[in-house]
Amino acid sequence: MTDSELMREALLLAAQSAAEGEVPVGAVLSKDGEIISRGRNRRETAKNALCHAELEAIQKGCEVLGGWRLWQCTLYVTLEPCPMCAGAIINARIPRLVYGASDPKAGSCGSVVDLFSLPYNHHPMVESGLLEPECRALLQEFFSELRKRRKSKNC
Asked: Catalytic residues, which ones?
């Protein structure tokens, strides 16, 4: 599969999260162009701050490959990872991260901070902006609808 096809899979997962009232973020972990695991936001459903799309994909990827080092994988995410997820990417030794939309409030791969530029023992290659318009539109639509629902409840 191509990078765009893999990101489209992540977008499908993000749309599933949105349909369940979750912030629409999806992640796909691939090895040799094939999907080995998927993840999506489930924080609200699970009532757990750790249930981010990236962490779910990384955890499942470790199970599939039988180890914690994901050094042959690429992670595709619809939104720039937060500090927790960027740390997990470093710890899992994922060599390449591809994300769609930047996150000016919590992005830790260049927007707010670049954790990958610090003197850790692993430095993933980052490619940003893949299918950015689609990724951003899904997030904007979700938050626009959320604001409308909150406003109608307060009226």
From this structure: 54
Burial readout 26-50 (b: 16 or more C-beta within 10 A, e: otherwise) = bbbbbbeeebbbbbbbbbeeeeeee
Sheet holding 73-79, edge to edge: 34-40, 26-31, 73-79, 96-101, 125-128
Q: What is the DSSP string of 4-48?
A: HHHHHHHHHHHHHHHHTTS---EEEEEETTEEEEEEE--HHHHT-
Q: Work out the burial of residue 113: count CB atoms within 10 Å of its CB; fewer than 13 is exposed, 13-18 middle, 19 or more buried.
A: middle
Q: What is the pLDDT of residues 35-73, one digit of tens each?
A: 999 999 999 999 999 999 999 999 999 999 999 999 999
Q: Which amino acid is at 155?
A: C
- Burial 77-104, CB ≥16 within 10 A → b, else e: bbbbbbeebbebbbebbbbbbbbbbbbe
| pLDDT tens track for 63-102 | 999 999 999 999 999 999 999 999 999 999 999 999 999 9
pTM above 0.85, yes or no: yes
